[in-house]
Design goal:
With about 350 residues, this protein is α/β, with parallel strands linked by helices. The protein has helices at about 15-25, 45-55, 65-75, 95-105, 170-175, 190-200, 225-245, 245-265, 270-300, 305-335; strands spanning about 5-10, 35-40, 60, 85, 90-95, 110-120, 125-130, 130-135, 140, 155-160, 165-170, 205-215. The relative contact order is 0.13.
Amino acid sequence: MSLRATVVIPNWNGETVLNRCLTSLRRQSFGDFETILVDNGSADASVDFTKRNFPEVRVISLNDNWGFSAAVNAGIRASEAEYVALLNNDTEADPSWLETLVRAAESRPEAGLFASKLVDFYDRRLLDGAGDALRRSGLPYRVGHQELDRGQFDQPAFVFGACAAAALYRRALLEEIGLFDEDFFAYCEDGDVSFRAQLAGYRCLYVPGAVVYHMGSASTGGKRSPTATRLGTQNSVNLLVKNLPTALVWRSLPSLLAGQLARVAITSFSSAGLRAHLGGLTGAWRLLPRMLKKREEIQNRRRVCDKYVRQLLRESSRQAIESRRRRVRDQIQLRFGR
């Protein structure tokens, strides 16, 4: 008999963080699950460490670094569980994390994917995320990121999407809309899945009781690294090309252009950042024919109307704007003690 849930952990040179992550899964109050570690051709001793210290973990070893999307897809395909949870290797899951997500899935059939409450691993007064948003500019935003946790995200809520650092998906959803897009390699691939799910009529529920402590970007050199900037730029464009309904493209065009100009301005503070951003735009242009083909399939399967998507994005953008304001206020308070 298959287990109820599978936790898939993509790994690349994560030996130094795996012990904490895998130990936290041993402590889960929910026991009807398996753990699959998918290793992306690590140069360190991640695989040997896991096999030696966590023999209950099933290890899938890829021959090279094929990216986040390919790694999680390999784990999903190797499982038959009803629910698939993704968990980054640089995390520590609260003991009730998986149980809380599964209970939410059982009680909310209208939702197909579920977002965890991410807390900053190093400063646990701060949130790392409470669901993902997509701004009117077309740029993703992690709601709650770097906000002081004052209880503002203690109630379940529908959000645009789930950060794949710690999220639960119904297998039925993934079978219908497809797995993670391996052309994305890394970054925004979870936003793409969330958008496709929304277009197919599935909602995303943020579950505040499902708590995970997250270091963030442990494998990629930080979210401002050239790699992160290049892939973030490339895939934020790919996400829109694939998923944004045609009628909303023209309505949103001024905001989308403004968002791209803002990214140019931000990345131009360093020559490496600007080169990475322009490299991302070049990559998006190169992938455009492939993304347009995928777009046709996605839009043909769409079950929701333009009005629904417009309202979804309007609410998502509002959440992002309010969260950013709180973040600025909280960071000023932390820095200057006010």
